[in-house]
Design goal:
single chain; 311 residues; alpha/beta; Rossmann fold; N-(1-d-carboxylethyl)-l-norvaline Dehydrogenase, domain 2; 2 domains; 8-stranded mixed β-sheet; 13% strand; globular; binds nicotinamide-adenine-dinucleotide
Length: 311
């Protein structure tokens, strides 16, 4: 199996929103040559320039650096391109469809090196199932990047039921070398680590609205102005130690029986779906959104993340 130092040629399979941003991220290691493969022609440079515009405008990425990094990204629509056969590690970011992903990896395995590493960026699908039809399942892990992929530091690295010792660790070294914060998920469970945590919070947030305890804006205000504000500095389990195990136990003993524990999506979500309230897509979800507000929300999020990460 290749060591971290021997990995130089990275393949990104699927050049959509995530694939383009991951390609850019991988060029942060000056030793990496990146190939992007997609079924359809796509302007990878234009996509990367669009998503990194605020970084360049703010001077966090210099134009010369961007040009140099883009020069190490090569795009192909040809599955039989030698750059695919020669890649040391592939990160797959094609459509979120089990059949498409399994078929894509079968084609990749037939063409790629004997010692190549296989990674899938699936948000929710089991990497064990995605890799189930491969011959060399031992070199397969999940690498779950978060959107926007060029900014959010976390990448969850998920071991499958067949990942060999050392594979996840080598992939984590690769991700660290491009400035990401890889976290090891030792078991292939739905939601991995961070989405389980995130959706435990969303379930309760939606339940509070559903039961008329507070409206959506109040819930979001409460989150942003309390624990949401301190989370980047003091996270859940650090906070438990800070307040003390006894207090955590006492609070859980009192409050857990009253917290939402449904194993089904909220009826409120179903009602919103039936009413066509699809969020940004339809201009209404928990809130009403104009196109200007949607654009501002996206730009403000990027600006906030850049401030948190670069200043
Ligand atoms: N969008 C997000 O917020 C997000 C976050 C984390 C993970 N992901 C995951 O990343 C993956 C890609 O998501 P996205 O948002 O970039 O989707 P996307 O639709 O923007 O891009 C998918 C790309 O894959 C290409 N493609 C489809 N089938 C292919 C094939 N057989 N071979 C090669 N290319 C193929 C498409 O042409 C398209 O360019 C999905 O598995 C998704 O779950 C998405």
């Amino acid at each position: 199996m290749k060591s971290f130092e021997e990995i130089k040629k990275i393949l990104i399979c699927g050049g959509g929103l995530m694939g383009k941003n991951i390609a850019f991220v991988m060029t942060a290691n000056p030793n990496y040559q990146v190939t992007v493969y997609d079924l359809y022609p796509t302007d990878v440079e234009a996509g990367i320039r669009k998503s990194t515009a605020q970084l360049v405008e703010g001077g966090y990425v210099k134009e010369e650096e961007l040009v140099e990094r883009l020069s190490r990204i090569y795009f192909t629509t040809n599955m039989d391109d030698p750059a695919i056969a020669d890649a040391d590690l592939v990160i797959e970011a094609v459509f979120e469809d089990m059949g498409v992903k399994q078929e894509t990896f079968a084609k990749l395995e037939a063409r790629m090196r004997e010692d190549a590493y296989f990674c899938t960026n699936s948000s929710v699908m089991s990497p064990s199932e995605i890799s189930s039809k491969l011959t060399h399942r031992e070199r397969f892990v999940g690498t779950h990047f978060w959107n926007p992929g060029h900014l959010i530091p976390l990448v969850e690295v998920i071991k499958t039921d067949a990942t060999a010792d050392g594979v996840a660790e080598t992939v984590m070294e690769v991700l660290s070398s491009v400035g990401k914060k890889p976290c090891l998920c030792k078991k292939d469970v739905p939601g991995f680590i961070a989405n389980r945590l995130q959706h435990a919070l969303w379930r309760e947030a939606i339940s509070i609205v559903e039961h008329g305890i507070a409206d959506a804006a109040t819930v979001d205000t409460a989150i942003k102005n309390s624990f949401g504000l301190r989370l980047p500095q003091l996270s859940a389990l650090e906070n438990s130690d800070l307040v003390g195990t006894q207090l955590t136990w006492n609070i859980h003993n009192y409050v857990l029986p009253h917290i939402e524990d449904s194993h089904e999506p909220s009826p409120l979500l179903k009602k919103m779906l039936d009413e066509g309230k699809m969020g940004f897509k339809s201009g209404e979800g928990f809130y009403k959104w104009t196109q200007e507000e949607i654009d501002k929300c996206n730009a403000d999020l990027n600006a906030y993340l850049i401030k948190m990460l670069y200043q």
